[in-house]
Amino acid sequence: MRHRHAGKLLGRSYEHRKALYRNLMIALIEHRKITTTVAKARAVQPEMERLITIAREDTPHARRMALSKLASKDAMRKLFTFAPQDYGGRNGGYTRITRLGPRRGDGAEMAIIELV
Description:
The protein is an alpha+beta fold and about 120 residues long. It is about 55% helix and about 15% strand.
């Protein structure tokens, strides 16, 4: 039973899952829209929402927290340039997931996750 075990495992170890989330968040910050599976999009959405909430206030502590999640200075700088401007007056709901249908190769349900 999985009682009180929050979050999706995605068939990966903790380190692999953490790296996957980091790479998806960096790609989302750089491109503002990425195509991935529905499971990965739904798993990374709360992490991205928390990161944007942190980036709304541009303080050294917020930058350190974001850098610990991202591990990419370029992505962190880009996040801190657009997040306060675009999402300063918005209380959550920074991302949108749109389903695309099954992938041709293996039938995995695909989705687009984008910054609103």
